[in-house]
User: Fold Class I SAM-dependent methyltransferase from Streptomyces coffeae.
Amino acid sequence: MPVDEGLALYAAAHEAATAFRLPLVEVGTYCGRSTLLLADAARAAGTIAVTVDHHRGSEEQQPGWEYHDPEVVDPEVGRMDTLPTFRRTLHTAGLEDHVIAMVGRSPEVAAVWGPQVGLVFIDGGHTDEHATADYEGWTRHIAPGGLLVVHDVFPDPADGGQAPYRIYRRALESGAFTEVSATRSLRVLRRTAGPLDGDGSGT
Ligand SMILES: C[S@@+](CC[C@H](N)C(=O)[O-])C[C@H]1O[C@@H](n2cnc3c(N)ncnc32)[C@H](O)[C@@H]1O
Assistant:
């Protein structure tokens, strides 16, 4: 994530944490770089960051694909496992007390999640199946006035995959969200309308 996107994410997290003192949720922990931004904003406001990942990597991070890192393969299991690296990242930053790490698939975690949240940052799987499930699972938990942040939004298909762009468009077209900022591929939206229906598409 480029620095200006990170600053925009931090600004959104700081605003939401300060305004609501509700949990800030991230979908897609990986090794924890963006988690640090949510965690520091949560710490400053006296709330908590919650980050969700099965830690087995997305499609493009698997062996043979563009973003694969062999250093995060568990040699015993033979699959990716970014959890140890993530834990070291948090420990080194001194932010362990400000993060709850949920290890599991995003839709399953969203289905059992209870409280409203101040912000949801979607940066998980980038297929339509995964991005749609993240959108439908998590947006309904955002408090009115809270923020939805989507990463890797590329209006031009030549710049990248379209699944995050499609959920960003869906949020706007639902009438339940308005755009706050756009920084490269990072979009910040505010939940402005009333209750969302069960799949986050607005009422
Ligand atoms: C692009 S990386 C996240 C990068 C991280 N936000 C950062 O900026 O450092 C995507 C992550 O989403 C996770 N992921 C993909 N699909 C998922 C799903 N359905 N449930 C949970 N985690 C998932 C992958 O394991 C991977 O670690």
In short: The radius of gyration is 16 Å.
